[in-house]
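hi!! sorry for the late reply, been swamped w classes. u asked for the two structures so here they r. pasted raw, havent cleaned anything up. first the sequence of the first protein and right below it the tokens
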Amino acid sequence: MKIALLSVTKSGLKISKQLKMKLSQDPRIFQVDIFHKNVKETLRRIFDDYDAIIGIMAMGIMVRSICGLLSDKRRDPAIIVMDDAGKHVISLISGHLGGANDLTLEIANLTSARPVITTSTDVHGCMGIDALAKKYYWKIKNTDKIVKFNRALLDGAKIIIESPENLEYLFNDQLFRKSYMIKKGEDKIIKAILDKDEIKIKPCRLVAGVGTKKGINEEKIIEGLKKALSFLDLPLERLDIIATGEMKKGEKGIINASRILKKPLKFVDLNDLRLEDTHSKSSFVEDKFGVGSVCEAAALHVAGRGSRLILRKTSYDGIAIAVAVSREKVF
């Protein structure tokens, strides 16, 4: 995730600097940039380049500055506003699909500000269909039906999730259990069904790239995968593929972990690893293999063309793990 922090006052700039330090510790966040003053001009220039934009300013300034830039809830960045005393942090735009609500809660936790969430499903303790898709990295085809389905949830309806895949891990999600039921389906795609209407859903490919020191056993690797996915608030069952470099073909720990978890294991050719632009850089790995990070490169390659990292390299006792998600067109 790339985040832009905008401020207009000295106190706002101070908060931006403090927030940058704290957000940069999150392995889901890859870049945090600070911009000061010239709000309208800056927003026009950066609006499409960041996943989230946080304005440390009066909400009116942000609203007036972004109104001509918004285009589509599927593509607009998360927009968050925080007052320059750091007392309140408000999710303004793209609360669900853009992740503004979750980021607002994280900022509140980091700064002790009071979070302000106004999306109806959230304030009534429901998980909207768009929030469900965002959390589990699903793509929704007919987004025009989101409002109808979410309104039904607020009226007490239960939505059926019909799937050919095993989605039992969803039952561990308390908010999911409150509003949804699972039914075995025959079609190749997932469907959310409300009466005679339906929303078509397809999961994005989720790949964990793994690099290890020699001789690491499968128990440690599985525990490392669980810890990595916990940063994303995802169960291990949501993972689709495990990937690593071809130099790890003899590592029984990785092979056995794949077998135990019943997840496909892909070995990536060294030349293909070198083609990937990784976020993390290890001089040792680069000198030895010519790639900045084996786990990041393997995850990106197997996730497919245009894929993106959603968890940068994280290390656990001799194990390095990164997670990438596909960006291929699914509908």
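now the second protein. again sequence first, tokens right under
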Amino acid sequence: MAKKHLFIINPKSFPKKRKLQQVIAAIDAYFTGRKAGNLPREDFFIHIEEFPRDSIIVIRKYMQNLEKETALRVYSIGGDGTSFCCLNGIMGLPNTDLAIMPHGTGNDFVRNFGEEHIAEFRDITLQTGAKGIPTDIIHCGDNYALSYCTIGMESAVIIGIQPWNKQFEKIRRRFNWINSAFIILGAIQVAFNKAVINQYYTINADGEDLSGSYALLNIANGPCYGIDKNAVITAVPDDGFLDMLLLKSISPLRILLMMGPYLKGEFAKYPKYFIWRRIKKVSINSESPLFVNMDGEAFFDSELTCEVVPGAVNIAAPNGLSYQRRAAPHE
């Protein structure tokens, strides 16, 4: 089967143009080297994103022009937002898989293979030869996500700090501590917003009624998110399930105190405040707008249904890597 390679690059992930040029040069050098070494020809195309989600259109059009029985590997070169767009671009396409080359502020999904392996995902030689492993995804409405879908406080924080992120975009991409500082300040602000932390949700999870007032809901396909956090530590991207964690509505100060244990995956120590379920499908609605965040893409909605799609996409895993299990369900 003929093989093609489509590279989607988010230029905003490279504050220094020199670094972007190095990445492009490495791609070109690899395929030039294949030709010089008399290896089978494999065509490639590089697309540099011009506006949000334009990669979805590019991927679809590129696939339409390929001959039948052609395998396509799409490379996401950027952060989680770029991977989100590439995933939504390839869904439903035949003979297509996804390689993630992390160069963004947050590179959450590849951390599921272990933080010590991130450099391997940036290696063009390893990525082009890597075998794709079946991976679950989250289907929510018209969108698909690799890592998580959060509703409530966390999503409200992400939406609230968007103006700061835009204003200080260049500097925050160079210094991760600035992103963390923004999130902390945003969390303090939202924790005292009663409309958010006391919002009532009608929830049906695999037939179980979990309706009630919650500060936040986290529906996870993997444990890693938020640059270096591991909140739903029991989640694994290839087990055919989603792990859902709910934080009950409690006082603002108690919420802030629970953020530390929550972000470290220590929710099992506080059963009074947290509800954990392993699910296939959950439907959520509320009389007030839902603050939603899917893999870093934030938006509002009135109701949402999240469902796992087992083994829906093949993710390139360099050097035969596999997803790490960080905790058993009972831990």
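hope this helps!! also noticed smth abt the second:
The CA atoms of residues 289 and 302 lie 5 Å apart.
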